[in-house]
Amino acid sequence: MNNLINQDALVQLIKSEVDKQVAKQSFEPRTAGLTPQVRKDYFHGKGVEWIRTFIFDRYPETNEANGGWVTNPRKSIHGKTTTIWLKPARKWLDEHELEIDWNEKMPT
């Protein structure tokens, strides 16, 4: 009796599902700078100054000094490199998604 299952299709299906599960469990670093990828994934692709003005300045609780998830939101005597703690940033941004006006324009 011939095989009733298309083995090639089954192998492709299993491989596809395994790849999806591996991608879900892929390594995510603990911290990152305001790189283009972080801005795309976390901040709707907004520019660095937009993020500083409408997120970091408007919500001081995001600052690590206030218990938040961003270190050095702006250059200061304490440091000049902005660092985002990704896991708490994602949680906070998810909780405040609708509160933030993502269409707000930078002042001219």
Brief descriptors of the model:
mainly alpha; 3-stranded antiparallel sheet; 108 residues; 42% helix; 3 strands
What would you say this structure looks like, in words?
The structure is a single chain. The protein has 108 residues and is mainly alpha-helical. It has helices spanning 7-24, 36-42, 48-57, 86-95, and strands at 31-32, 70-71, 83-85. The model has no long low-confidence stretch (mean pLDDT 90). Strands 1-3-2 form a 3-stranded antiparallel beta sheet.
- The helix-and-strand class reads mainly alpha
Rounded radius of gyration (Å): 21 Å
What's the total helix number?
Answer: 4
| Proportion of residues in helical segments | 40-55%
Beta-strand residue fraction: 5-15%
Low-confidence stretches: none
Shape field: elongated
Mean pLDDT: 90
Major sheet, described briefly?
A: 3 strands, antiparallel
End-to-end CA span: 76 Å
The strand order across the widest sheet is 1-3-2
Order of helices and strands: HEHHEEH
User: Number of DSSP strands?
Assistant: 3
Give a quick precis of the structure:
This protein has about 110 residues and is mostly helical. About 40% of the residues lie in helices and about 5% in strands. It has a three-stranded antiparallel β-sheet.
